[in-house]
Amino acid sequence: HDAATGEISGSTAVDVQYEDCPDDLAATFKALHPDRADAIDEHLVGDCDRDLFDYLNEEKFLVPGRSKTKYLDIAEDDGWTFVAGEGIRFLPPKIDDEDADAEFRDLIGAGCKNDDGTERPCIVRRYCDSCNRETHRDIYYKRLTPIPPFEQV
Fold first, then answer.
1. Assign residue 71 a region: left if phi > 0, alpha if psi is -120 to 50, beta otherwise?
2. Rounded distance, CA 129 to CA 114, Å?
């Protein structure tokens, strides 16, 4: 409080320091607070792995196993070429934008053909492991118009 102006101010900043307990957390708490030593017991678990598993199943519905649509093994042997990625599929970005653009254009125009034998742009596959909706995880794009020149992109 500033008596001259009548203004009141406050702060929510606090200096917090973390350090390891010399023993385990429960023993340290009980030694520092003998009058309420039992208060810590309801907040600590014994078997962390089991309690974490129970929590995730009760609260987050974790089902052990592997998703049929997430984190698929997509190999270039299957005919796909990685161009860009993020998360577990991260690829370092190309340093030269024009070179990366030219490489992408070469992939799109790599001689793909329609069923009748006419040439068409190749299909781009976008796979998103982190997409929550299964319908958005694995998407195929077919370019219907020419790609604009590099300078216009």
1. left
2. 29
